[in-house]
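Look over both lines:
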Amino acid sequence: MDGLDETLRTIAGDMGVEVFGIAAASGFDNPAYQGNRPQTIMPDVRSVIVIGVAVPRGCIEPLPNGRAEYTNTLLAGTVTLRAAAFRVAQTLEREGHKASIVPIEGSEFGYWYVDRETLKADVSIKYAAYLAGLGRYGVSNLLLIPGIGPRVRMTAVVTDAPLTSGSPSANLKADCTDCLRCVEACPADALHEDGSIERERCRDYMFNTLGGLRCGLCVKACMDAHR
């Protein structure tokens, strides 16, 4: 299936995708993983394709000023990724496989894509990216990708195609304990030094305090720490 792997990578790259990886769906069976599994939405899923774009630094540096611009830039990344993911899904189906696109985040364009109580999505894109060997989790629970850090926007395509998958290359939450700038920067006190996160605090801050705009201060803190 290497030929199809490269075809998909090329198609995504031609549409502006900068991050591309493939995770074996079986990796979600790891007992350490506490989220929902892609098998619940596609029982015969074999691969999860992760694609991403780097969020421009210019919309992150002014935060907390410019949150409207930051949010709008994230949504522009969403549009880019959805178009690329659709092309990937089309190509897979033309090759005789099934494919479906995973929502980029929990709430966008007036729709909720996650369980409002558990705040769990049907598939964790970050965990798929970790399984694909694209990066590691930070204390912030953001995925840190070499050369990009946390300023990445991602989506995923689940498919029954038996593609060539990557593998994790680093420990979860490794090498962050001497920094903790994200913990200090969080205005909702949702992040903790042990790497745990109170997602409800993050959600309530964004939707109640910011009126739906995205916060981004953990992203900014991490970006500033790794210049």
